[in-house]
Amino acid sequence: MRGKLLTLAGTAALLLTTAGGAQAHSSNDWRPALSYGTTEHERWASGWVGGSTQRADGGAHIKWTGTKVGVQAWTRDHARDGYCAVTQIRYHVKDGGKWADHWHYRSPAVDCTDGNDGIVAQWYGSRKPIKDVQARVCLGNASGTPVRDQCHPWD
């Protein structure tokens, strides 16, 4: 029994690592914000994923000046298919004077309500210098982990 539990735990850890990577909120890269004021740059990233029986759409409003970044994400679950709609962002962060050589991930908007008007998450502002912010929408689970191969390309 103990061997089966260890195997199950190891498999779950592998799946979580390959499906979505570490969630950025656990590394303290962002802080909640009521809004994100005037910046030098802004852009919107959006997309949809799914087909006739599974569908999600979402995106993010990204604002920045230099490496100070604000993000507000939204997402909408369209079907009663057992999946949630997940908007995921990825980015590079500068920590200890060096830019990370790997992506950091966060899922700031998750909607599991099957066909309502979706959700708009609050704004998040960067605590550390951040660059290369991209967003995508995926089918995923309630914790914000995307289902492998069920995502719109990064935008």
Automatic annotation (TrEMBL):
Cleavable signal peptide: 1-24
Keywords attached to this entry: Signal
Protein name: Secreted protein
